[in-house]
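seq as requested:
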Amino acid sequence: MPQASRKDDDFPYWLVAIAILAAVAAALIIFNDLYRQIFSALSNGIWITVFVTLVGFALASALGLLIAVMALSNSIVLRQIARFYVEVIRGIPILVLLFYIAFVGAPAFVWLWNAITSPLIEAGLIEKMTVRDFPLIWRASIALMIGYSAFISEVFRAGIQAVDEGQLEAAKALGLNGWQRFRFIVMPQAIRTILPPLGNDFVAMVKDSSLVSVLGVADITQMGKVYAAGSFRFFETYTIVAFIYLLLTISLSIALRRLEKRLDARNAAEGKSAS
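struct tokens:
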């Protein structure tokens, strides 16, 4: 009996409820002219949200891996730099980072670029760069990269440290160099530990990408703000905005859970074959 009740509890009733809400929202968009018009106005922002999220997360993962490797290096200087970066960035809200990168970091980069390339500018080979030449969408992506790289670096660090030290010693005994040990021994095992929290960070970035609307980037939230301000249809507009974000995040969460189950099944199969 306890096992049967547990199976009943494991049935995804929450997913059924969300599917019903999604069906209702889809019906409104298809059969209601107002909701269809709102969805059409917001649809262009979906691609901006996806672009900012994918670019920001890819860059954040690369930078986070670099910071994690620095944190685990034998050099105390690199370790201290990595710890300083993580503690400082984690203590700054994403919204503040967006403003700082957009209105402080971007002008500073433009000034530095013009200073470095001044001989080429004076020779007429390239044009002088202005702040307007630095698109807001890239400023937003870089801000998300910096903000999330600190959290992702801790995920990578924990996953790498979870690898059995004995396997690294065995790899050293076999003559594998540092890069080979990292590529063939550490990462294949660490990815199993890293993937779930990394997936959670990806879903979180989808939601936090809505913050880029404060810079005027035409994502879902910004398009919703513009449409609601012009039509005064706040309830209908933000209902569709919430529905789109919910659809994106729930779909990603389900995909990640299936991937985790596949990895668990693969690990169990490998364990049986090894035994």
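The first helix runs from residue 2 to 10.
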